[in-house]
Structures are given as C-alpha cells and as structure tokens.
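USER: Fancy drafting a protein?

ASSISTANT:
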Amino acid sequence: MITVALLSQKGGAGKTTLACSLAVEAERAGRPAVVVDLDPQASAAKWADLRTAETPVVTSAQAARLAAVLSAARAGGAHVVFLDTAPHAADAALMAARAADLAIIPCRPSTADLHAISGTIDLTRLAETPTAVVINAAPVNNPVVGQARAAIAGYQVEAVPVVVHQRIDHQHAFTTGLAATEWAAGSKAAAELAALAEWIHHHAEAKH
C-alpha cells in the first residue's frame, strides 16, 4: 500500500481538492483508494457526503489515530491512501509526513505562497520523506509558472512536472462531490489531473 501526504502549512493551497481528485483517479485506474481527512474542518468528508459513488472511501481521523487507520486501510485492500492534512497544524503534518511514502506540497504560484512552503519543506525534511511541490491553481499562459519553478528549485526540492491550472471545472466538480475527470471528461482540467495522478503514482511506487 502506498501512502501519499498532501501537506501545506498555508491554507488555500488546494490540498483537499487534490487529495479527493487524485483518489478518484486512482479508483478509475483500478487502484482502490482511501482519503484520510485529518483536517478538523472535514472538507474531504463533506465532499464524500455529496457523492453517489461509494468510492473512494473517505474517513475522518485524528492524527493520533493515523497508524490504526492506515492499518485498517491496508487490511481493507487499499492500494493507495491520500492524507489530507490541515494548515497551521505542524505536529499533525509531521506525523502524516512520517507515515507517507511521498509528500506532495501544493503551492499556488504567488510570492506569498512560495515563501510559505519553506516551513512545510522543513517538516518533510525532518520526517525524511521524499517530497515534491506541485504548482496548483496556476493562471493559464502566464510567466509566473516559470518563475515559480525557479523559486521551488531554490529550495532544493523537486517540482512536479505537471502543472494544475486554475480551471472552473475543478471548482464545479468539487462542489458536487466529483473530480474534474468525472465532471468534464476530456477537458484540460481532466487531462492535467490524470497526468498528475500518474506521475504521483509512479513516483510513490519508486519510493515505496
């Protein structure tokens, strides 16, 4: 079983949308997925409440119960678990990072967001967890993406080659309990999400 932690100490980075959407993509690829919602706001669990599909499984948990939840997911046949973490919760984020095979840090390509990832990178280094930053909610056809890549390189951390752009399909899908690949199959949003899911899967498998 692979465990992927979505981490960001800054709110609004898009962790929950990515965690749920990536779990949908894993299921579509035949890899049973679980989302563990570690955020007290329970946004992932609320998303699951809107779904008619029974998968992916979404379960709310406290960080202190993470080992038991992961054990239950493994026993239940999960192939991949996505940990959706809360912002401004360093202790819980560190526990999630230590439990993960791969840490993904979503980051919007803004100066404030790029500065904010340093604390999350410090956490994953403390946990000794392989880490990559994914540029998320990027404006389309904008040079800030290249600038963001340069800034990420300055942290000496890997940047995911797939960029997730700011597209309305992601927002519409999430508010109806779907992923962009379900809401608008064949769209650019769906293509980016599918490419990101495959990159993360292969990268996590290699680190497992």
Remarks:
- The mean pLDDT is 96.
- Residues 47 and 177 are 5 Å apart (CA to CA).
- The longest strand covers residues 102-107.
